[in-house]
Amino acid sequence: MVDRKELTEWLISLGFSSNEASILLLLSERGALTVSEISKELRIAQPHVYTSLQELFEKGLVEKIGSRPARYCNLNFVSKLDEIIKQRKKYAEKMLNHIRSLSSQSFKGTIFFRNKKIFKGELLKALKSANHRVWLVIPAFSLIGDNIEKELMKIKNKVDTRIAISDIRYFRTLGESPSFIRYIQPSPPFILVIIDNRLFFAPIMGNMYLGISMDNPDLLLLYSNYFDHIWRDDYVRTLYRLRMTTPKEY
User: Fold this and answer.
1) Could you give the C-alpha distances from 13 to 148, 198, 213, 227, in angstroms and in order?
2) Which of 33, 172, 176, 240 has the fewest CB atoms below 10 angstroms from its CB?
3) Residue 57 belongs to what H/E stretch?
């Protein structure tokens, strides 16, 4: 039986914020609700409920019924999820085919992993021996486990550590925003880690799993530039999502 927490984490991995995911699940279970009812049930401040509803409205996932007080309900939720999953599956298959094509090339130092446990083990080993940088892009820490998260916190003051993550719930548990963490949207459908001059990459494809580790300089430069882009350019664009302002009701 899948519980609410697991469903929420899954929706977050698809690119929804924590509040958006919680609201969508609540409306699926209870039907049309007012902002006050949503706020009370989920223990989310009403301004944040309005913000999330506005985001969901713009995505075509909720509709407003009546007024004084207005009620909100899901709209095209299942069909929209189906569309998102198909798009991600198509992208994941593209990335998987790209990685498979690499196996026919003779990149020195390239390792392929068809097992999550082995991939995480090699990643943890590389983290413990990191000398100058650790750059990470990930939807949520739950995908790589507590041991890797703890190791990242241990080495953050020893090497250039940068974490780009899409789990806003984790981000907000930190209190003040630390300089080594960025909140990014949309949620990436892969795990990307650059440790010194080595690249770790694994597309997220449900139960399917194929990870890769390599030190090819061309690909390392390509993904380093990608990371630098989301770290610098996308940061300003996503800051507004974290502001705790009171929006007007739409």
Assistant:
1) 18, 25, 23, 19
2) 176
3) helix 46-58
How many CA atoms lie less than 13 Å away from 22 in the CB half-sphere? 16
Calculate the dihedral angle through the C-alpha atoms of 172, 177, 178, 184, rounding to the nearest 10 degrees: 70
Tell me the average pLDDT across 106-128.
81
pTM above 0.70, yes or no: no
Stretch 42-48: mean pLDDT: 90
- Is the Cβ–Cβ distance between 39 and 45 less than 8 Å? yes
pLDDT of residue 80: 85
pLDDT of 245 higher than 90: no
User: Distance between CA atoms of 137 and 192, rounded to whole angstroms?
Assistant: 5
> Beta strand pairing status for 33-34 and 71-74?
antiparallel
Choose the CATH number for 80-240 among 3.30.870.10, 1.10.150.20, 3.40.50.300, 1.10.357.10: 3.30.870.10
Residue 126 structure tokens: 């590389």
Strand partners for 71: 34, 65
Q: Is the pLDDT of residue 73 over 70?
A: yes
List of E strands, the chain: 33-34, 62-65, 71-74, 111-113, 133-138, 160-165, 181-183, 190-195, 198-203, 211-214
Q: Looking at residue 141, what DSSP letter applies?
A: G
Tell me the per-residue pLDDT of 128-146, one tens digit each, with 9 for 90 and over.
999 999 999 988 888 888 8
100 token code pair? 């498979």
Residue 74: both structure tokens together: 């899901």
